[in-house]
């Protein structure tokens, strides 16, 4: 029985199929009228080989899931009768020109993580497999629903199965017939990116933690993603709190810095043998800190000198593309920002260094001390957890012992 043949068919002598309203996963979605009650229902069609899983789906109950009320079989297909949601998918809202704010995107994502945690903690675990804007419904009154469970896979260990999902949203391992919680993490990252639309860069620059979150969700190597939805949920809550919020104006500053880093590739192989040692150049640049003009003048004069130093350090980023040089320069830029009284500048450089060199332990330590100096104890503790999480992977370069001791002392001072 094909999808078009279903129109006008009555299932179980009760549900009259009116029209096809969707296509996704491994089956079609239809609108049906209950001939007994006169109400409308959504009917999901699945191939008969999904019969066992379809029946198990009926046991799933969550506020974000449409309620499943009945089950039917006819021909080569089985059918799930579900609550009909009067709303539009996030894709429809986007196509109609709706612009989601960053706060809206993160709140929507938090609701999605809740239902994903519910799925992943079932026995056996359920992996959704096809998360995308088309499968998330948003009603006029702001109620969110996750629809189309046709691609969901139960985590039976003894058997792999093909679950391609949707190109652009499906994790790479799905093509190999494997799905884990990290596969849904990948799709959530892609969904958040899609909801950003043309504002993606502005949102990342406006909230750098969100940018870090987005990048880590969308890593192609599943081992480099967040391991589970609970961790993602915590990270979203941190980003939503905007503990170190980077304004758009400061974000534009970061963009200029990033563009200068991109230029590294152009100069990478040009006359490297003729360059003076970085230590010598740094000595020349930072010598201003020890002059009378800096030590004995007004705050505004010192601020001006720091601004000039920042520009010179950024130029050095282009001339010295090696990893060790980049680390030293970004740490110097962060310190210069703090001396300048521009804490947001400093935070940007620390986050930039960790984002692109997340195995550099010393960056975490110096950033942690910066947070403690600025009274951001909770943020320092969260950074410590990020450091420990990265350390457990076994790829982290250890920070200096002295830095580690100071960070531990400052955390204990603030918490006591």
Structure explained in plain terms:
- The protein is 49% helix and 13% strand.
- The protein has 17 helices and eleven strands.
- It has a six-stranded antiparallel beta sheet, with helices on one face.
- A hairpin with a 2-residue loop joins strand 5 and strand 6 (77-83).
- Helix 10 packs antiparallel against helix 12 (299-319).
- Mean pLDDT is 81; it is low at 243-274.
Please tag this protein with its features.
single chain, alpha+beta, six-stranded antiparallel β-sheet, 17 helices, 11 strands, 49% helix
Write the layout of secondary structure elements.
Layout: E1 10-11, E2 15-24, E3 27-34, E4 40-47, H1 51-57, E5 68-74, E6 77-83, E7 88-89, H2 90-95, H3 102-120, E8 126-127, E9 136-138, E10 144-146, E11 153-154, H4 181-196, H5 200-206, H6 208-217, H7 229-241, H8 248-262, H9 264-267, H10 278-286, H11 292-295, H12 299-319, H13 323-339, H14 343-356, H15 361-373, H16 377-391, H17 401-415
Antiparallel strand pairs: 1-2, 2-3, 3-4, 4-6, 5-6, 7-9, 8-11, 9-10
Helix pairs in contact: 3-4, 3-7, 4-6, 5-6, 5-8, 6-7, 8-12, 10-12, 12-13, 13-14, 14-15, 15-16, 15-17
């Amino acid at each position: 029985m094909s999808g078009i043949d279903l129109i006008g068919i009555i299932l179980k002598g009760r549900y009259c199929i009116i029209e096809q309203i969707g296509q996704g996963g491994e089956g079609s979605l239809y609108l049906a009228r209950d001939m007994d009650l006169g109400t409308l229902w959504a009917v999901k069609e699945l191939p008969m080989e999904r019969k066992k899983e379809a029946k198990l789906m009926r046991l799933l109950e969550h506020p974000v899931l449409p309620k499943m009320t009945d089950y039917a079989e006819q021909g080569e297909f089985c059918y799930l009768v579900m609550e009909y949601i009067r709303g539009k998918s996030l894709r429809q809202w986007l196509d109609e020109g709706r612009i989601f704010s960053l706060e809206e995107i993160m709140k929507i994502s938090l609701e999605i993580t809740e239902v994903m945690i519910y799925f992943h903690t079932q026995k056996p675990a359920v992996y959704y497999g096809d998360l995308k804007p088309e499968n998330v419904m948003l009603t006029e009154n702001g109620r969110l629903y996750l629809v189309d469970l046709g691609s969901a896979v139960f985590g039976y260990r003894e058997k792999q199965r093909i679950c391609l999902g949707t190109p652009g949203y499906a994790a790479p391992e799905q093509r190999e017939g494997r799905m884990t919680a990290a596969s849904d993490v990948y799709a959530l990252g892609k969904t958040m990116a899609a909801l950003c639309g043309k504002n993606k860069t502005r949102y990342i620059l406006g909230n750098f933690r969100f940018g870090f979150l987005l990048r880590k969700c969308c890593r192609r190597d599943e081992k480099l993603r967040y391991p589970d939805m609970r961790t993602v949920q915590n990270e979203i809550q941190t980003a939503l709190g905007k503990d170190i919020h980077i304004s758009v104006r400061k974000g534009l500053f970061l963009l200029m810095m990033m563009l200068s880093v991109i230029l590294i590739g152009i100069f990478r192989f040009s006359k490297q043998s003729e360059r003076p040692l970085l230590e010598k150049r740094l000595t020349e640049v930072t010598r201003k800190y020890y002059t009378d003009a800096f030590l004995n003048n007004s705050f505004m004069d010192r601020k001006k000198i720091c601004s000039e130093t920042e520009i010179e350090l950024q130029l050095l980023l282009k001339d010295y593309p090696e990893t060790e040089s980049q680390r030293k320069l970004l740490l110097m830029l962060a310190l210069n920002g703090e001396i300048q009284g521009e804490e947001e500048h400093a935070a940007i450089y620390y986050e930039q260094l960790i984002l692109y060199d997340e195995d550099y332990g010393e960056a975490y330590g110096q950033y942690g001390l910066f947070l403690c100096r600025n009274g951001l104890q909770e943020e320092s503790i969260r950074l410590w957890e990020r450091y420990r999480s990265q350390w457990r992977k076994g790829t982290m370069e250890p920070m200096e012992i002295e830095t580690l001791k100071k960070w531990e002392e400052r955390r204990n001072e603030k918490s006591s």
